[in-house]
Structure prediction request, 129 residues.
Amino acid sequence: SVGITKDGAMDVPKDISNTAWYNLGTQIGEVGSAVINGHFGWKDGKSAVFDNLFKIKVGDKIYLESEKGDTVVFVVKEIRSFNKAESEESVFNSNDGKSHLNLITCSGTWNKGEDSYSSRLVVFADREA
Prediction:
């Protein structure tokens, strides 16, 4: 789990092969928007956990297993790209009384000067009934 950085952004996993749950938000499977992020891009010859996230499609299912062994299923409803200047508020907040899972990673063009990609790819999913 991760919180926020000193700059006020969601922190990221330390290892490129792991994902991280945003611990200041909703628990996975509860009402609201649970957010999980992961890295995109190669580092030291290794691919990152969300390198293939762009391949997911609306209607695909995401299966998450809890530490207790319970499986929670989400169905992808939307895939959206946010540029760096755009508000990502919709990724973290939901007030429709439903359970959501939002996956986020970098996308776009690498900017070496900023040490960052130009945009963020977000997969929005709803808990399967």
